[in-house]
Every structure is written in structure tokens, then in C-alpha cells.
Amino acid sequence: MPKTLPGALGYRYFRKVTVDIGSIAAGEVEDETVTVKGLRKSAPVHVEFPNLNAGLVPCNEHCSAADTLKFRVYNDTGGAVNPASQEIWVTQF
């Protein structure tokens, strides 16, 4: 359930979303696009990955269009990794 919370910078929007990141070869990045209802373009986004595999590094999280979250995951391990489907936490300020 999305929540809008008052904060020092105005309102924050919080949502939990399930993602299934594809297999990532060693030293490569995987670009992901996820629909997140309520996201606004040009407002800062923070994404938490509470269950992401060790050696995978999320980066470049941003709202590319209304309701659209884009991010990359870099594989810093020595082999391919196929992360399990998992919940991420999206906050927009």
C-alpha cells in the first residue's frame, strides 16, 4: 500500500514493489524498468534492496517518466548471478 508521509522537505511517497532482476554476467550491468504507481518525474528517488545478493551493486535509480522507475544493477562478483524475485522499497521526496 503506498503511503504519503509529511516530511521536512514536503511529502514523501513510499511503496513496496516486487522485481525480478535478470541474470547478470560477471562485471556487467543489468538495466531494469519497473512500474511504480504514483512516482513523479524529476523528483528524487531512493531505492532500498533489502535482499539483494552480495556483490550486486544497485545504482542510477531515477524516475524516467510518471509511474516509471529505472535503475541498474552491477555484478561485482567473479561469476554470473541470477537474483531471486524480491521486494524493493521505493521512496520519493
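Above is the first protein from milestone M3; the second protein from the same milestone is given next.
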Amino acid sequence: MLAFMHEGGFAMWPALVVALVSVGWAWTSPLAQRAGVLCGGAVLVVGLGVLGFSLGIHATVHGLQAAGSTIPAADHVKLLAQGLRESANNGVLSGGLVVMLGALAFMVRHHATSSR
């Protein structure tokens, strides 16, 4: 798991923190507000996932351009593929967290409407 996070880069950690804080905040919020808190956290997690993916691609392309002719042309494709795979870790984590937050929001909303 740490290798997955390390490969994806720094932006994965704020996404994880936002998801955990959203769950904690929702837990302590009034029942009627919990789904909104969870949905707000999900929006932030999506944004952080997109940001992390974009930063990873940017770093990969910048690194390839900076290396220039010191890396054989055939290796450029391999390195670009590796950078894409590592950058995609942001989307995998963010997607999983958004599904979790959305499912919790759905359950909380159902509970809030059925307890009225």
C-alpha cells in the first residue's frame, strides 16, 4: 500500500486525509447535515485526484524533456507508460474514496429520511 501511495505522489495523501476528515466531521454533525458533508468531501477528493494525476503527468513529461537525448528514444515510451501508470494511482485512490463517501452519504440520507 505504501508503494502505491509513493508511486502516486504527494497529492494522494491530502485526498486520503480529506476523506477521513469528512467521515469524522459527518459523524459529529447533525443527522440532517451528514450527507452534505460527505458529498462535499467527495467533491474535494475528486479535485485532488485530478490534480494529482495532472501533476504526475506534468512531472513525467517534464522529466522526459529535461533528459532529452541522454535517454534512448525507445525508452521514452517505456518511461511515459510508467509515469502514466503511477499517475493513475491518484484516480484509483480517489475513485475508491469517492465511492465510499457516496455510499456513506446514501446510507446516511436514507437513515435521516426514514427516521422522520
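Note on the second protein: The chain is about 90% helix and 0% strand.
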